[in-house]
Specification:
The structure holds two protein chains of two kinds.
Chain A lengths: L3 E4 L2 E4 L5 E7 L6 E7 L5 E8 L5 E2 L8 E7 L2 E6 L8 E11 L2 E6 L3 E5 L1
Chain B lengths: L3 E4 L2 E5 L4 E7 L6 E7 L5 E8 L4 E4 L2 E6 L4 E6 L8 E8 L6 E3 L3 E6 L1
Parallel strand pairs in B: 2-11
Antiparallel strand pairs in B: 1-3, 3-8, 4-5, 4-9, 6-7, 7-8, 9-10, 9-11
The chains are: A mainly beta, B mainly beta.
Chain lengths: 117, 112
Protein backbone atom coordinates (compact mmCIF):
# COMPACT_ATOMS: atom_id res chain seq x y z
CA UNK A 1 0.00 0.00 0.00
CA UNK A 2 0.91 3.64 -0.26
CA UNK A 3 3.46 4.82 2.32
CA UNK A 4 4.33 8.40 3.19
CA UNK A 5 7.44 9.15 5.21
CA UNK A 6 7.79 12.42 7.11
CA UNK A 7 10.93 13.75 8.79
CA UNK A 8 11.84 14.84 11.32
CA UNK A 9 9.37 13.45 13.86
CA UNK A 10 10.11 16.27 16.22
CA UNK A 11 12.25 19.37 16.21
CA UNK A 12 13.08 22.11 18.66
CA UNK A 13 14.43 25.36 17.29
CA UNK A 14 15.22 28.83 18.49
CA UNK A 15 12.97 31.74 17.69
CA UNK A 16 14.00 33.42 14.44
CA UNK A 17 15.49 30.34 12.80
CA UNK A 18 14.04 28.31 9.94
CA UNK A 19 13.01 24.67 10.00
CA UNK A 20 12.51 22.31 7.06
CA UNK A 21 10.15 19.34 7.15
CA UNK A 22 10.29 16.65 4.47
CA UNK A 23 7.46 14.52 3.15
CA UNK A 24 8.25 11.61 0.84
CA UNK A 25 6.00 9.15 -0.96
CA UNK A 26 7.98 5.93 -0.73
CA UNK A 27 6.33 3.57 -3.16
CA UNK A 28 4.27 5.78 -5.40
CA UNK A 29 4.45 9.07 -7.25
CA UNK A 30 2.47 11.96 -5.87
CA UNK A 31 1.88 14.95 -8.09
CA UNK A 32 -0.07 16.52 -5.27
CA UNK A 33 0.71 16.52 -1.57
CA UNK A 34 -1.04 18.32 1.25
CA UNK A 35 0.25 20.03 4.37
CA UNK A 36 -1.83 20.22 7.53
CA UNK A 37 -1.42 21.81 10.90
CA UNK A 38 -3.01 20.43 14.03
CA UNK A 39 -3.46 22.20 17.35
CA UNK A 40 -3.92 20.21 20.57
CA UNK A 41 -7.24 18.41 20.77
CA UNK A 42 -8.35 19.84 17.43
CA UNK A 43 -8.77 18.36 14.00
CA UNK A 44 -6.47 18.93 11.06
CA UNK A 45 -6.36 22.29 9.35
CA UNK A 46 -5.31 22.26 5.71
CA UNK A 47 -2.52 24.79 5.13
CA UNK A 48 -1.64 24.30 1.50
CA UNK A 49 -1.70 22.01 -1.49
CA UNK A 50 1.74 21.23 -2.88
CA UNK A 51 1.90 20.72 -6.65
CA UNK A 52 4.87 19.07 -8.32
CA UNK A 53 6.67 21.50 -10.58
CA UNK A 54 4.50 24.49 -9.78
CA UNK A 55 3.61 26.86 -6.98
CA UNK A 56 1.75 25.67 -3.94
CA UNK A 57 -1.83 26.71 -3.36
CA UNK A 58 -2.32 28.18 0.10
CA UNK A 59 -5.51 28.22 2.12
CA UNK A 60 -6.96 31.51 3.21
CA UNK A 61 -5.14 32.99 6.17
CA UNK A 62 -1.95 30.99 5.70
CA UNK A 63 1.14 33.16 5.17
CA UNK A 64 2.92 31.89 2.08
CA UNK A 65 6.11 33.76 2.95
CA UNK A 66 6.28 32.11 6.36
CA UNK A 67 5.42 28.60 5.22
CA UNK A 68 7.45 27.90 2.10
CA UNK A 69 6.51 24.80 0.18
CA UNK A 70 8.63 23.16 -2.49
CA UNK A 71 7.58 20.12 -4.50
CA UNK A 72 10.59 19.56 -6.70
CA UNK A 73 9.98 15.91 -7.55
CA UNK A 74 7.14 13.43 -7.76
CA UNK A 75 8.11 11.90 -4.43
CA UNK A 76 9.22 14.81 -2.27
CA UNK A 77 7.57 17.90 -0.86
CA UNK A 78 9.14 20.13 1.76
CA UNK A 79 7.65 22.66 4.15
CA UNK A 80 9.99 25.32 5.52
CA UNK A 81 8.84 27.37 8.46
CA UNK A 82 10.80 30.59 8.11
CA UNK A 83 11.72 32.90 10.97
CA UNK A 84 9.89 30.63 13.36
CA UNK A 85 8.21 32.06 16.45
CA UNK A 86 6.68 30.32 19.47
CA UNK A 87 3.19 30.66 17.97
CA UNK A 88 4.35 28.46 15.08
CA UNK A 89 4.79 25.60 17.53
CA UNK A 90 2.38 22.92 16.41
CA UNK A 91 2.01 19.46 14.91
CA UNK A 92 2.49 19.44 11.12
CA UNK A 93 1.32 16.52 8.99
CA UNK A 94 1.63 15.87 5.28
CA UNK A 95 -0.42 13.59 3.09
CA UNK A 96 -0.55 12.33 -0.45
CA UNK A 97 -3.12 10.57 -2.54
CA UNK A 98 -2.09 7.04 -3.43
CA UNK A 99 -3.43 3.62 -4.13
CA UNK A 100 -5.06 1.80 -1.23
CA UNK A 101 -6.15 -1.61 -2.39
CA UNK A 102 -8.25 -1.23 -5.50
CA UNK A 103 -8.87 2.46 -5.07
CA UNK A 104 -7.10 5.72 -4.38
CA UNK A 105 -7.16 7.21 -0.92
CA UNK A 106 -5.15 9.55 1.24
CA UNK A 107 -2.08 8.40 3.13
CA UNK A 108 -0.60 10.49 5.89
CA UNK A 109 2.88 10.93 7.23
CA UNK A 110 3.64 10.36 10.90
CA UNK A 111 3.73 14.08 11.63
CA UNK A 112 6.33 16.53 12.92
CA UNK A 113 6.11 18.14 16.34
CA UNK A 114 7.68 21.60 16.08
CA UNK A 115 8.55 23.48 19.24
CA UNK A 116 9.95 26.99 18.92
CA UNK A 117 11.68 28.31 22.03
CA UNK B 1 -18.64 24.17 1.44
CA UNK B 2 -18.55 20.62 2.76
CA UNK B 3 -19.14 20.35 6.51
CA UNK B 4 -18.35 17.12 8.35
CA UNK B 5 -19.70 16.43 11.83
CA UNK B 6 -18.76 13.58 14.14
CA UNK B 7 -20.86 12.47 17.08
CA UNK B 8 -20.10 11.84 19.86
CA UNK B 9 -16.99 13.93 20.52
CA UNK B 10 -15.83 11.46 23.16
CA UNK B 11 -16.77 7.95 24.16
CA UNK B 12 -15.71 5.76 27.07
CA UNK B 13 -16.66 2.09 27.17
CA UNK B 14 -15.62 -1.04 29.06
CA UNK B 15 -13.54 -3.59 27.22
CA UNK B 16 -15.57 -5.95 25.08
CA UNK B 17 -18.34 -3.53 24.28
CA UNK B 18 -19.10 -2.66 20.65
CA UNK B 19 -18.34 0.88 19.49
CA UNK B 20 -20.53 2.96 17.18
CA UNK B 21 -19.07 6.18 15.79
CA UNK B 22 -21.13 8.49 13.63
CA UNK B 23 -20.16 10.85 10.83
CA UNK B 24 -22.39 13.14 8.78
CA UNK B 25 -21.61 15.42 5.85
CA UNK B 26 -23.62 18.16 4.21
CA UNK B 27 -22.86 17.66 0.51
CA UNK B 28 -23.70 14.13 -0.59
CA UNK B 29 -21.86 14.41 -3.93
CA UNK B 30 -18.66 12.89 -2.54
CA UNK B 31 -16.18 10.64 -4.32
CA UNK B 32 -15.22 8.65 -1.27
CA UNK B 33 -15.05 8.63 2.51
CA UNK B 34 -12.17 7.53 4.72
CA UNK B 35 -12.00 6.65 8.38
CA UNK B 36 -8.69 7.31 10.11
CA UNK B 37 -7.25 6.56 13.51
CA UNK B 38 -4.91 8.96 15.29
CA UNK B 39 -2.96 8.09 18.41
CA UNK B 40 -1.72 10.98 20.59
CA UNK B 41 1.20 12.79 18.98
CA UNK B 42 1.10 10.60 15.89
CA UNK B 43 0.02 10.85 12.29
CA UNK B 44 -3.14 9.39 10.81
CA UNK B 45 -3.59 5.73 9.96
CA UNK B 46 -6.15 4.91 7.31
CA UNK B 47 -8.65 2.33 8.56
CA UNK B 48 -11.23 2.03 5.83
CA UNK B 49 -11.85 3.67 2.48
CA UNK B 50 -15.36 3.59 1.03
CA UNK B 51 -16.03 4.61 -2.54
CA UNK B 52 -19.18 6.58 -3.23
CA UNK B 53 -20.66 3.60 -5.08
CA UNK B 54 -20.15 1.27 -2.11
CA UNK B 55 -22.36 0.86 0.94
CA UNK B 56 -19.85 -0.65 3.35
CA UNK B 57 -16.31 -1.86 3.91
CA UNK B 58 -15.02 -4.34 6.43
CA UNK B 59 -11.60 -5.01 7.87
CA UNK B 60 -11.28 -7.40 10.79
CA UNK B 61 -13.32 -6.03 13.70
CA UNK B 62 -14.04 -2.82 11.82
CA UNK B 63 -17.03 -2.19 9.62
CA UNK B 64 -17.95 1.13 8.03
CA UNK B 65 -21.23 1.86 6.31
CA UNK B 66 -22.01 4.68 3.93
CA UNK B 67 -25.41 6.14 3.13
CA UNK B 68 -24.46 8.74 0.59
CA UNK B 69 -27.99 10.01 -0.04
CA UNK B 70 -28.50 10.90 3.61
CA UNK B 71 -24.92 12.07 4.08
CA UNK B 72 -24.01 9.59 6.81
CA UNK B 73 -21.38 7.04 7.65
CA UNK B 74 -21.02 4.84 10.70
CA UNK B 75 -17.91 3.08 11.95
CA UNK B 76 -18.52 -0.04 14.01
CA UNK B 77 -15.77 -1.58 16.10
CA UNK B 78 -16.68 -4.97 17.48
CA UNK B 79 -15.51 -6.33 20.84
CA UNK B 80 -13.48 -3.27 21.76
CA UNK B 81 -10.03 -3.60 23.32
CA UNK B 82 -7.90 -1.09 25.29
CA UNK B 83 -5.66 -0.85 22.22
CA UNK B 84 -8.59 0.67 20.33
CA UNK B 85 -8.29 3.80 22.47
CA UNK B 86 -7.53 6.63 20.06
CA UNK B 87 -9.17 9.47 18.16
CA UNK B 88 -11.13 8.41 15.11
CA UNK B 89 -11.49 10.86 12.25
CA UNK B 90 -13.92 10.77 9.38
CA UNK B 91 -12.98 12.56 6.14
CA UNK B 92 -14.76 12.98 2.83
CA UNK B 93 -13.25 13.68 -0.57
CA UNK B 94 -15.13 15.73 -3.11
CA UNK B 95 -17.12 16.91 -4.81
CA UNK B 96 -15.41 20.10 -5.83
CA UNK B 97 -11.68 19.57 -5.37
CA UNK B 98 -8.98 17.20 -4.28
CA UNK B 99 -9.08 18.22 -0.65
CA UNK B 100 -10.22 16.14 2.28
CA UNK B 101 -12.82 17.61 4.61
CA UNK B 102 -12.37 16.34 8.16
CA UNK B 103 -14.68 15.97 11.07
CA UNK B 104 -13.44 17.01 14.50
CA UNK B 105 -13.03 13.41 15.57
CA UNK B 106 -14.35 11.08 18.25
CA UNK B 107 -11.95 10.29 21.09
CA UNK B 108 -12.47 6.74 22.28
CA UNK B 109 -11.33 5.32 25.60
CA UNK B 110 -11.70 1.59 26.18
CA UNK B 111 -11.40 0.72 29.87
CA UNK B 112 -9.77 -2.57 30.83
Amino acid sequence: GAVVSQHPSWVICKSGTSVKIECRSLDFQATTMFWYRQFPKQSLMLMATSNEGSKATYEQGVEKDKFLINHASLTLSTLTVTSAHPEDSSFYICSARGRQGAFYGYTFGSGTRLTVV
Amino acid sequence: KQEVTQIPAALSVPEGENLVLNCSFTDSAIYNLQWFRQDPGKGLTSLLLIQSSQREQTSGRLNASLDKSSGRSTLYIAASQPGDSATYLCAVFGPNDYKLSFGAGTTVTVRA
